[in-house]
Design goal:
alpha+beta; GMP Synthetase, Chain A, domain 3; Ribosomal Protein S8, Chain: A, domain 1; 2 domains; 3-stranded mixed beta sheet; elongated
């Protein structure tokens, strides 16, 4: 249980220093620690497109991995934001996929972080008439959705 308690305590202390009252619950699964935050300032902690949540997660991961003998991955969530975001991105990807199919012209969307890009690539993976590509430099990139001109070629993506 120590592997959950250390990240949980780091997060509780960080939130306390931010003057945010919240409950933190957690569990471990396959060397990944999942921490759920429940409080009254969810919007502030999530931030625009989840960027504040991503920054908090990065900070907690760095803090925890300085203390642990073996590296752990800590995933933060607030009010099931991650699953709601995934659903929203998949629906958006489907909308743009239909537009590409109707017009036959590529569309560039984004920018997105790696987690969001992966959701979009996976959402369109089964669309054999389309393919997706990540474009740009750095960790924040755009996604291009293109008609797949080659017959029999499955959708694929490149990072």
């Amino acid at each position: 249980m120590e592997e959950v308690d250390i990240p949980r305590q780091f997060l509780i202390e960080l939130l306390r220093r931010m003057e945010i009252e919240a409950e933190v619950e957690g569990f471990a699964k396959e060397r990944i620690i999942y921490l759920a935050i429940k409080g009254d300032k969810d919007g502030i902690l999530i931030g625009k497109h989840g960027r504040t949540l991503e920054a908090l997660q990065l900070l907690i991961n760095r803090m925890v991995n300085k203390q642990m003998r073996e590296p752990l991955k800590v995933v933060l969530d607030i009010d099931q934001y991650r699953s709601r975001r995934a659903d929203s991105l998949a629906k958006m990807a489907g909308h743009f996929a239909e537009r590409v199919k109707a017009t036959g012209r590529a569309i560039t969307i984004g920018p997105f972080n790696a987690y969001d890009r992966r959701i979009i690539h996976i959402a369109l993976k089964e669309e054999t008439s389309l393919r997706t590509e990540s474009i740009g430099e750095g960790i924040i990139k755009k996604i291009m959705i293109l008609p797949n001109r080659e017959e029999g070629n499955n959708t694929r993506y490149r990072e």
